[in-house]
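User: Glutaredoxin. Structure?
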Amino acid sequence: MADITIYSTTICPFCVRAKQLFKKKGVDFTEINLDKQPDRRDEMLAKSGGRRTVPQIFIGDRHVGGCDDLYELELDGELDPLLGL
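Assistant: Predicted structure:
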């Protein structure tokens, strides 16, 4: 199964939706909460090509993007293969 990393903030509804989808699929993920670890924002910016919004989601080495991008992969049937399901 691929490693999943999600950069988030505490009150972001899009972050909640993205995490709910991963939980529904039964996959573990690493959450980096930028409210609690603000020093990791530069890391997120570098990895995401300068994107500042959250969530920023990574599956393995692939930058998926945000919540809408994640759900688009799901609708297109491309998420499960990325997750190794």
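The chain has a mean pLDDT of 95. The radius of gyration is 12 Å.
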